[in-house]
Specification:
heterodimer, A: mainly alpha, 13 helices, 68% helix, B: 12 helices, 2 strands, globular
C-alpha cells in the first residue's frame, strides 16, 4: 500500500465517521445523543485547543480547562436570573456568550503573556498553576460562584430545553466542532501557523530571523483560549450548572487524558479521545470489579498509552497503516520533542 | 536587497525603540513595580483600618502589633512546611529534569500511612480521631519515620520501573507521573475514605510558648515545624555542598553527560536524589497531616504549593525554594489577615499575583538559571 493510498484510507475513515455522526440521532438512543455524543463534542472542542497548542506550538497547556471554566462561569453569572449564586445579571444568553468568550480570551491573553518565554515542562507547570488557582478562585469568591456553583443556566431559545430536545444542541455542537476543526486546519497553513510551527521547532533560529517568538506564543495561546471558551459555553448549555469541581485538578487531568489518549499531535485525536473517555466513563461503572474506581481505570489506561504509544490512539492507527505501507518512521516523526523523541543534546 | 530574499512581513515591522527610550521604559516599569510592592506593605503597617467599609480584622501593625507578629509567625511557619515539601520537588527536578506531578499524591500517602500507623499503635481513636493527650512522642515519631520511608520506597519503585528508561523525554515523564498521581489519589480515596482526618501531635508538642515579643503566646507545634524545616534546609545544604554525593548531584545538575563520562554512576545518583525527594514529600505529608488535615483534594493543594514555590524561586535551586516558600507563606497569610473583612475570600488572588509578578520580571524564577 503506497503513501497516497494511506491518505485515501484516512479520508475514507474520516468521511464515514462524519456520516455516522450526522446520522447518529436516527439509530442510537436519545441517551446516547443527549449524553455521550454531545459531551464528546464539547470535550473534544476543549481538547482540540490543547492539541492545537501542543502539536503546532510545542506548548502542552493544562490551563485549557480553566479558560473553559471562566467562559462557563461568566455565562452563568450573566444569564441566570435569581435563585442561584453569582451575580444573576439576567442577560440574553447570546450577550452572555459574547461576554463569556471575551473575558475568557482576555484571561488567556494574560496567562499567555506571562508564560510566553517558557516551553515544555516549564509551560506545563505554569499552566497547571493557573488551573489550580482558577479553581480555588471560583471556590472561594462567593460573589461570582462559591463552592456550590451556579445552577439553572439557560440555553438560548433556538436550542430550547436540552433534556426535551437533545438533538438541537447535538447538531449545533457538531456544526461548531466541524467549523473549529476546519478553522484550525486552515490556520496552521497560514503564514501565522507556519511561523508558529517554526517557533515550535527552533525558537532561537526564529528569533534570530526577526520573528517575535513570545508574541506568536501569546497569540496562539489566546486563540486556543477562544476555542476552549466555546467548549465551556456548550458545556454550561448542556449541563445547566457549573461549579468549581467542574474545573478542579481532576477535570484538568481528565482533559489531558482525553488529549493524550487521542493523540497529542493530531487534531482529530481530540474527538477520538473524547469519545473513548465518555464511553469508559459511562460504562465502566457497570463492571462490578471496577465500580466506583473509574479514575484508577482511566489512570491505568493513560499510563499504558503514554508508555506504549506516546502518539495516542491516532498514533497507533498511523502505526498500523504504516505497517501495511512498509514505511518505517511514520507517526513518531511528528511527535513533539520530549514525548517519544529525545531532546537533541548539544 | 533582492525582493525574493525579503521575508514576508518585514516591511510592516515596527521601528525598534532607541536606547534612551528603552531605558526610560525600563525605569518606569521598575518604579511601577516598586510602588506595587510598597503599597501593600504601607497598608499593613500604617493604614489598615478597624472601622468603616474597609475594616480589617486586626487593623494596622502600628495599631495592633501583637496580631502583626502572630501573622508574621504564621507566615514563616507555613513557609517552613512549604519548604520541606517543595525542596523535595526541586531536588528531583534540578538533577533529573523530572517534574514529579505525583509529589502531591506522595504527600498525602505519607500522611495517611502515618495516620493509620498512629491509630494502630495507640489503639482506638473513635470517630473523632485521637486527642493529643493519648499520644506520646514515640507514637508520633515512629509513624513519621515509617511514612517517610514508605513514600521514599514508592518513589524509588516509580523511578526505577517507569522513569529510568524514559530519561530525556521530559514531557513523557511528566505524563507518567500524572498517571501515577491519578491512580494513587483514587486508591487513597478507596482505602482511607473521603472524610478529613488528621495525625495527632504528641502531648509534649501540643502546648503554647511565650515568645516574649509583644506579649505573643504561640503554638509550639508551629515553632517545631519551623525548627524541622530549618534543620532539613541546613542538612540539605551541607549534604549538597560538603559531601561527595552532594557534589556529584550538583555536577549532574550542570552537566549530566560529563558526569557520567567521568565514570560516575549517574543512575545511582538519580536513584538517591529521587529517594530523598520522595522522602521529603512523605515527611511533609506527616507534618502537614498533623498541622492541618488529610483529605482527597489536599494532594492538589500541595502540588500547587510546590509548583508555586519552585516557579517563583527558580526551578532546581535550594535557596530559591527557601525564598519562594517564604514569599508564598507570607503572601497567603498576610492577604488572609489584612484584606478588609468583607473581602477576605479574595486572598487567593494574591497567590496568582505573586506568580504573575515574578514571571513578568524573571521568567525563570528569582534564582532560576537557563537549563
Amino acid at each position: 500500500m503506497s503513501w497516497r493510498n494511506i491518505v485515501t484510507v484516512d479520508r475514507i475513515v474520516a468521511f464515514v465517521a462524519l456520516a455516522l455522526a450526522v446520522t447518529a440521532p436516527l439509530y442510537v438512543s436519545t441517551y446516547w445523543v443527549g449524553q455521550l455524543l454531545t459531551q464528546m463534542l464539547f470535550l473534544g472542542i476543549a481538547a482540540a485547543s490543547l492539541i492545537f497548542l501542543s502539536a503546532y506550538g510545542g506548548m502542552v497547556s493544562l490551563a485549557q480547562i480553566s479558560i473553559y471554566g471562566i467562559a462557563g462561569f461568566v455565562v452563568g453569572n450573566a444569564t441566570t436570573n435569581g435563585n442561584t449564586k453569582g451575580l444573576n445579571l439576567g442577560w440574553n444568553p447570546w450577550w452572555g456568550v459574547l461576554l463569556g468568550i471575551a473575558i475568557a480570551v482576555g484571561s488567556a491573553l494574560v496567562f499567555g503573556a506571562l508564560a510566553n518565554r517558557s516551553v515544555g515542562i516549564y509551560f506545563l507547570m505554569i499552566t497547571l498553576t493557573y488551573s489550580v488557582i482558577a479553581n480555588l478562585c471560583f471556590g472561594q469568591i462567593t460573589d461570582v460562584s462559591g463552592f456550590g456553583g451556579i445552577s439553572g443556566i439557560p440555553a438560548p431559545r433556538a436550542i430550547g430545553n436540552v433534556d426535551a430536545q437533545p438533538n438541537r444542541l447535538y447538531y449545533i455542537s457538531l456544526a461548531i466542532a466541524l467549523l473549529i476543526y476546519a478553522l484550525l486546519r486552515y490556520l496552521v497553513r497560514t503564514p501565522f501557523g507556519l511561523t508558529l510551527q517554526g517557533v515550535r521547532d527552533d525558537p532561537v533560529r526564529m528569533a534570530s530571523l526577526g520573528y517575535n517568538v513570545p508574541l506568536h506564543r501569546t497569540i496562539a495561546f489566546a486563540f486556543a483560549g477562544f476555542i476552549a471558551a466555546i467548549g465551556g459555553v456548550l458545556f454550561v448549555w448542556w449541563n445547566g450548572h457549573i461549579d468549581p469541581a467542574s474545573i478542579d485538578l481532576g477535570a484538568t487531568i481528565d482533559l489531558l487524558v482525553i488529549a493524550v489518549v487521542g493523540g497529542l499531535y493530531r487534531l482529530e485525536g481530540a474527538w477520538v479521545g473524547a469519545l473513548f473517555f465518555v464511553i469508559i466513563n459511562n460504562y465502566s461503572q457497570r463492571i462490578s470489579f471496577i465500580g466506583p474506581r473509574f479514575h484508577t481505570l482511566i489512570g491505568a489506561i493513560f499510563l499504558v498509552i503514554v508508555l506504549v504509544s506516546p502518539g495516542g490512539l491516532m498514533g497507533l492507527w498511523e502505526r498500523v497503516l504504516s505497517i501495511f505501507s512498509g514505511r518505517r518512521r511514520g507517526p513518531l516523526d511528528r511527535t513533539p520533542v520530549g514525548l517519544g523523541q529525545v531532546e537533541p543534546t548539544v | 536587497m533582492d525582493a525574493a530574499l525579503r521575508r514576508p512581513g518585514t516591511r510592516r515591522r515596527r521601528r525598534s525603540l532607541t536606547a534612551a527610550q528603552r531605558h526610560t521604559l525600563r525605569i518606569t516599569a521598575w518604579v511601577m513595580l516598586a510602588v506595587l510592592a510598597v503599597l501593600p506593605v504601607l497598608w499593613v503597617l500604617f493604614f489598615a483600618p478597624t472601622t468603616g467599609r474597609f475594616a480589617t480584622s486586626f487593623g494596622s501593625a502600628v495599631h495592633d502589633p501583637k496580631d502583626f507578629v502572630i501573622t508574621v509567625l504564621n507566615g514563616v511557619t507555613a513557609a517552613g512546611l512549604y519548604f520541606v515539601v517543595a525542596s523535595g520537588f526541586t531536588l528531583i527536578f534540578g538533577l533529573m529534569r523530572v517534574v514529579n506531578m505525583a509529589h502531591g499524591a506522595f504527600f498525602l500517602l505519607g500522611g495517611y500511612i502515618a495516620l493509620k500507623l498512629q491509630r494502630g499503635m495507640v489503639g482506638g481513636g473513635g470517630s473523632f480521631g485521637l486527642t493529643s493527650d493519648q499520644v506520646n512522642l514515640t507514637h508520633w515519631i515512629v509513624p513519621a519515620l515509617a511514612g517517610t520511608a514508605l513514600v521514599a520506597a514508592a518513589g524509588l519503585v516509580m523511578q526505577q520501573l517507569l522513569l529510568r528508561w524514559t530519561q530525556g523525554q521530559d514531557l513523557r515523564q511528566a505524563l507518567i507521573t500524572i498517571a501515577i498521581s491519578i491512580i494513587l489519589a483514587d486508591q487513597m480515596l478507596a482505602h482511607f475514605g473521603g472524610i478529613a482526618e488528621d495525625v495527632s501531635w504528641p502531648r509534649n508538642f501540643d502546648t503554647f510558648t511565650n515568645t516574649h515579643v509583644a506579649g505573643v503566646v504561640y503554638t509550639t507545634t508551629r515553632l517545631i515545624i519551623l525548627g524541622i524545616a530549618v534543620g532539613i534546609g541546613l542538612f540539605l545544604w551541607l549534604w549538597l555542598k560538603r559531601t561527595r554525593t552532594g557534589m556529584v548531584i550538583r555536577a549532574g545538575v550542570d552537566d549530566r553527560a560529563m558526569v557520567s563520562a567521568l565514570g560516575i554512576n549517574i543512575q545511582l545518583t538519580f536513584a538517591i536524589a529521587f529517594v530523598a525527594g520522595s522522602a521529603l514529600a512523605g515527611l511533609g505529608g506527616v507534618i502537614g497531616g498533623s498541622f492541618a488535615s488529610l483529605a482527597p483534594g489536599v494532594d492538589a493543594n500541595w502540588l500547587l504549593y510546590s509548583l508555586v514555590v519552585v516557579i517563583i524561586g527558580g526551578m532546581g535551586s535550594l535557596g530559591g525554594a527557601a525564598i519562594g516558600a517564604l514569599l508564598l507563606g507570607l503572601t497567603t497569610n498576610f492577604s488572609a489577615a489584612y484584606l478588609p473583612e468583607n473581602y477576605t475570600y479574595y486572598s487567593i488572588i494574591f497567590t496568582f499575583v505573586l506568580v504573575a509578578v515574578v514571571l513578568a520580571v524573571r521568567p525563570l524564577g528569582i534564582f532560576g538559571r537557563p537549563a
